[in-house]
Amino acid sequence: MEADYATLKDRFVKSQKLLVNLKRMFKIKDFKRTAILKYAWGLVPAGDDVNIEQRISILADPQKYVTIGDVKEAKNENNQHVYAYVTDGRMYFTANFYDLPKDDQVGTIIHEAAHLFLDCYDHFLLKPPHTPTFEPDQEGVAYKGPAVMTGYESEGFHTLTDNAPHFTKYNADSYAVAAIMAWRIKDLTTEKEIEQALFSKHAFSSTRFGQDLHVHAGPSGSKSKSGSPKSDSGSGKSKGKGRRK
Which residue of 73, 79, 178, 238 lies most exposed, with the fewest beta carbons within 10 A? Predict the structure, then answer.
């Protein structure tokens, strides 16, 4: 399937608008920045807020470009919930992507960009130290490893931010959720208004906690001795899957 470039151009422009707003918000150390940081990443260790700000700046770059690939798989019942994925350094959008609400399309692009440019993860070991891992996606139903929690807003997002804030800077959905929420609160002026806005509804309209709404498999990854993840993005053997509805 050939990509709908007119639609994608509009959504990429909107995603940059949200990311630039998020970047601007992180430059000012006030209660808005604190609220977004806590909501999307949790109570992060000292210094991680600076690293997260640097990573946001990488995404919020109008000069950065994405190579779009044509989707070769035909639409069928096996991929009806696959909206977008990243592999071989390219971003792919399935026919299902265009059925999403506009704002969810924008959020999905930010999520995939976090995989593409920041080597972000979606899964983390359930037990401490909650190391990021790609293995469940790489092995699929054959995975027999340790239990994992996900960073998807539709699944274990808040479990991750509560229990593993030292690793949330590597969570792809944190950047998408933060960008959407920062746009929601940009014109608010009080802490009470901001708190109410953040918890009034989810960032993605399709999110319903308790349902399997979002899957993604990234490039093969490993972790360094210090515990920080790095990806072998040159392998090109795995495919990422986007949001589920």
Answer: 73
Fold annotation for 5-200: Collagenase (Catalytic Domain) (3.40.390)
Q: Which two tokens stand for residue 162?
A: 């509560």
Query: What is the Cα–Cα distance from 240 to 227, expressed in whole angstroms?
Result: 23
Q: Which of 117, 84, 100 is CA-nearest to residue 204?
A: 100
Of the candidates 137, 139, 178, 136, the residue with the CA atom closest to the CA atom of residue 157: 178
Count Cβ atoms within 10 A of the Cβ of residue 147 and give its class: 0-12 exposed, 13-18 middle, 19 or more buried: exposed
Q: How many beta carbons lie within 10 A of that of residue 189, not counting itself?
A: 10
Within 10 angstroms of residue 94's Cβ, the number of other Cβ atoms is: 21
Phi first, then psi: give them for residue 177, nearest 5 degrees: -65, -45
Q: What is the dihedral of CA 141, 139, 106, 208, to 10 degrees?
A: 30
Q: Is there a contact between 181 and 198 (Cβ–Cβ < 8 Å)?
A: yes
Q: How many helices (H) and strands (E) does the chain have?
A: 8, 8
Q: Which two tokens stand for residue 143?
A: 């995975």
Query: pLDDT for 24-82, tens place per residue?
Result: 999 999 999 999 999 999 999 999 999 999 999 999 998 888 999 988 877 776 677 78
